[in-house]
């Protein structure tokens, strides 16, 4: 059961700024503000959705939560305890990630048995060779693969099967929290539902908590009770999925929702598609004030002058927009 009183993950004003070489001859240093002050809670047993177009900072945020990148500033708590530079290794077993690209995330020179076994080795989760092998086969079966496939290499599998291997690897250490970073974006539409259903079943069986990242709201909606919308390093809106669909407040969210295809013709007729002009700006030199204002159909002069505060508009519904 979901417990809405005690967060498993707490994120407070988290920033991830990358220093890169830029300018003429690469002599200047530039700062990429990939995640630029983000706060939210994820409760035990829930699927927390994170959406936003490519380049908004979703992957960076997910990886920073797991300390795959050291945060530039801000705080991350797991079950009430702060994760720090000193202690983050203690959380490696509790927090796992499923990567977006099942082709790039599995070592091509390792057999499936070794890929999954590596996770067991790192955390010493067996006492005999036989126990190790039994665990690996059990995990393969759990994700719909079989013992005969254990000796094969990643290239012998389809995209969907590779993602199953990635999921087995994440589950090998019995984590409590999993960042699912666009786990189905690279897969055929026909395979996507299988993987999503499997992730859902695992969550029920193993009482997992997910951060589920997608650039597509329709995918996130299937799994998530609460959804955060990210734009250029910031969460601009956060609420439960029902109210996000029925009365989103932020113009960016509204444009994302208007882009979801509707199969019902009567609804489709009344729905107006909001098309954003231009590309997402660079996180090196983001626009002043509200970062969305350069593409916002409703922008006014205040939007370029002041950063909008991320505030609770209704109970549980947060939004960062001057015009709301
Ligand atoms: N290691 C890195 N070094 C420098 N810039 C990065 C790095 N990783 C991501 N970025 C930049 O940070 C921004 C956010 O990227 P990312 O987190 O991958 O977004 P998303 O997952 O939403 O597509 C992008 O502009 C990207 O180019
Ligand atoms: Mg990404």
TrEMBL record:
<dbReference type="GO" id="GO:0005524">
    <property type="term" value="F:ATP binding"/>
</dbReference>
<keyword id="KW-0813">Transport</keyword>
<dbReference type="Pfam" id="PF00005">
    <property type="entry name" value="ABC_tran"/>
</dbReference>
<dbReference type="InterPro" id="IPR027417">
    <property type="entry name" value="P-loop_NTPase"/>
</dbReference>
<dbReference type="InterPro" id="IPR050319">
    <property type="entry name" value="ABC_transp_ATP-bind"/>
</dbReference>
<comment type="similarity">
    <text>Belongs to the ABC transporter superfamily.</text>
</comment>
<keyword id="KW-0547">Nucleotide-binding</keyword>
<dbReference type="InterPro" id="IPR003439">
    <property type="entry name" value="ABC_transporter-like_ATP-bd"/>
</dbReference>
<dbReference type="InterPro" id="IPR017871">
    <property type="entry name" value="ABC_transporter-like_CS"/>
</dbReference>
<dbReference type="InterPro" id="IPR003593">
    <property type="entry name" value="AAA+_ATPase"/>
</dbReference>
<keyword id="KW-0067">ATP-binding</keyword>
<feature type="domain" description="ABC transporter">
    <location>
        <begin position="9"/>
        <end position="257"/>
    </location>
</feature>
<dbReference type="Pfam" id="PF08352">
    <property type="entry name" value="oligo_HPY"/>
</dbReference>
<protein>
    <submittedName>
        <fullName>ATP-binding cassette domain-containing protein</fullName>
    </submittedName>
</protein>
<dbReference type="InterPro" id="IPR013563">
    <property type="entry name" value="Oligopep_ABC_C"/>
</dbReference>
């Amino acid at each position: 059961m979901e417990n809405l009183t005690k967060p498993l993950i707490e994120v407070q004003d988290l920033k991830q700024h990358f220093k890169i070489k830029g300018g003429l001859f690469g002599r200047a240093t530039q700062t990429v503000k990939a995640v630029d002050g983000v706060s939210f809670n994820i409760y035990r047993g829930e699927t927390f959705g994170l959406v936003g177009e490519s380049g908004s900072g979703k992957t960076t945020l997910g990886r920073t939560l797991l300390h795959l990148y050291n945060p530039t500033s801000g705080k991350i708590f797991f079950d009430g305890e702060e994760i720090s530079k000193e202690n983050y290794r203690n959380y490696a077993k509790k927090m796992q990630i499923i990567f977006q690209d099942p082709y790039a995330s599995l070592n091509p020179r390792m057999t499936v048995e070794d890929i999954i076994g590596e996770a067991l080795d790192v955390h010493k989760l067996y006492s005999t060779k036989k126990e190790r092998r039994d665990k690996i086969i059990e995990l393969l079966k759990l994700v719909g693969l079989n013992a005969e496939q254990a000796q094969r290499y990643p290239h012998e599998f389809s995209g969907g099967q590779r993602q199953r291997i990635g999921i087995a690897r994440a589950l090998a250490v019995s984590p409590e929290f999993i960042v699912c970073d666009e786990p189905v974006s690279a897969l055929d539409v026909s395979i996507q539902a299988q993987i999503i259903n499997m992730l859902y079943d695992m969550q029920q069986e193993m009482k997992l908590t997910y951060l589920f990242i997608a650039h597509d709201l329709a995918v996130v909606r299937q799994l998530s009770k609460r959804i955060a919308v990210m734009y250029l390093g910031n969460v601009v809106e956060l609420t439960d999925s029902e109210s996000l669909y029925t009365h989103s407040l932020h113009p960016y969210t509204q444009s994302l929702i208007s882009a979801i295809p509707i199969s019902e013709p009567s609804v489709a007729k009344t729905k107006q598609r909001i098309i954003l002009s231009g590309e997402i700006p660079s996180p090196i030199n983001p626009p002043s004030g509200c970062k969305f204002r350069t593409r916002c159909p409703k922008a006014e002069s205040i939007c370029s002058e002041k950063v909008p505060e991320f505030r609770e508009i209704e109970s549980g519904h947060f939004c960062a927009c001057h015009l709301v």
